[in-house]
Automatic annotation (TrEMBL):
This is Archaemetzincin family Zn-dependent metalloprotease. Pfam families: Peptidase_M54. Keywords: Hydrolase, Metal-binding, Metalloprotease, Protease, Zinc. Its cofactor is Zn(2+). GO terms for molecular function: metallopeptidase activity. The keyword Protease applies. The keyword Signal does not apply. Gene3D superfamilies: Collagenase (Catalytic Domain). SUPFAM superfamilies: Metalloproteases ('zincins'), catalytic domain (SSF55486). Coiled coil: none annotated. CDD domains: Peptidase_M54 (cd11375). InterPro entries: MetalloPept_cat_dom_sf, Pept_M54_archaemetzincn, Pept_M54_archaemetzncn_arc/bac.
Length: 179
């Protein structure tokens, strides 16, 4: 089973291939950069953020349904995301629909007044992207702070995660038919 990656056209296109390749490596699954027209909804003017649930609604109700997508779909965007009762989220998954979103907004060094680094952004997007796809493949959160499925509250916690699943999470991943 492969992974579809839909890249927000408004976000650095040069990062799409390295992120896609790293996610494929982490999950040991093929990834494919796909292009579908998608109208992004859920912008909240007061918060200057997007409601992640509304983005998933749109992915589920138009993209997945209209194009009959069977495999997990990850949307990568730079729009800052929130969910109810949460100031922000790095990403969100809806396993019942096979769709997930990850945001680069708080993954870039510039957001924290640190020196910009594409490699840092690529690593973080891949870790969080693989984390959300992990949910789509049936995994829950992990207490191992170095595991991809650990839920980081901060950028530093995210950076502390390794670019790998712990043995238990790795074993829980469904076997890819492509292997
Ligand atoms: Zn999670
Ligand atoms: Zn784990």
């Amino acid at each position: 089973m492969g992974i579809n990656i839909l890249w927000d056209q408004q976000y650095s296109p040069g990062l799409s291939l390295p992120v896609s390749r790293l996610i494929a490596m982490l999950l040991e699954r093929d990834t494919e950069l796909v292009e579908y027209p998608v109208l992004i909804e859920g912008y909240d003017r007061e918060r200057d953020q997007h409601d992640a649930q509304k983005i998933l609604d749109r992915l589920q109700n138009t993209v997945v349904r209209r194009y009959g997508i069977q495999e997990p779909l990850l949307f990568v965007t730079a729009r800052d995301l929130f969910v109810q009762n949460c100031d922000f989220v790095f990403g969100l998954a809806r396993p019942s629909a096979g769709v997930a979103v990850v945001s680069a907004a708080r993954l870039e060094n510039g957001y924290y007044n640190r020196t910009q680094s594409d490699q840092d952004t690529i690593d973080r997007l891949a870790k969080e992207g693989a984390h959300e796809i992990g949910h789509l493949l049936g995994l829950g959160h992990c207490s191992d702070t170095e595991c991809i499925m650990y839920r980081p509250a901060t950028l530093d916690e995210l950076d502390r995660k390794k670019k790998q699943f712990c043995p238990a999470c790795r074993a829980a991943l469904p076997v890819s038919s492509g292997q």
